[in-house]
UniProtKB/TrEMBL annotation:
It comes from the Bacteria. This is MarR family transcriptional regulator. GO terms for biological process: response to stress. InterPro entries: HTH_MarR-typ, MarR/SlyA-like, WH-like_DNA-bd_sf, WH_DNA-bd_sf.
């Protein structure tokens, strides 16, 4: 909204949408050919930074349908980024574990995403960036507590259905 002021510049939905679209474009470029795009990044992050999680737990955490998760994990496993191994306590449960290749790829992606985020937030001072992130975190926690996201897939479908082509 640099240079041109419109009547919608004070409309929360409009401004949030503009920032969201810029973020999606920048992060799509940053994750490149990673299977599953940004979702694949989230799964890889969980596999590297968290204790190994079951497929079911990851579905719940990210609001991803089980069928979609299976395909996503198949693709990430095919790229040698994660493996699924039986849980020691319950061999029917599969844990998602990052490979060494996955760990290296995540380090590269983290740097690329940091640059993408900096690009989107470039219009703000460092202090304003920190404030914005803190406020969005609070707002997201409140919104999720009030209306938990059961399926990220459904949210995306709802957004797509309501967006004029």
């Amino acid at each position: 909204m640099i240079g041109r002021v419109t009547a919608l510049d004070e409309d929360f939905g409009f401004t949030l949408g503009v920032v969201f679209r810029a973020y999606v474009k920048a992060t799509n470029v940053a994750v490149g050919d990673l299977p599953g795009g940004h979702r694949g990044y989230q799964i890889l992050t969980a596999a590297v930074r968290d204790q190994p999680e079951s497929q079911s737990a990851l579905c719940q955490q990210f609001g991803i349908d089980r069928t979609v998760m299976t395909y996503l994990l198949d693709d990430l496993e095919g790229a040698s980024l994660v493996i699924r191994r039986p849980a020691p306590a319950d061999r029917r449960t599969r844990l998602v574990v990052a490979t060494e290749t996955g760990r290296k790829r995540l380090a590269e992606l983290d740097l690329r995403l940091k640059h993408a985020e900096a690009h989107v937030l470039a219009g703000l001072s460092a202090q304003d960036q920190a404030s914005l992130k803190a406020l969005l975190g609070k707002l997201a926690a409140h919104a999720n507590a009030a209306d938990p996201v059961g399926s990220a897939c459904q949210v995306v479908q709802d957004i797509a259905a309501s967006t004029p082509q």
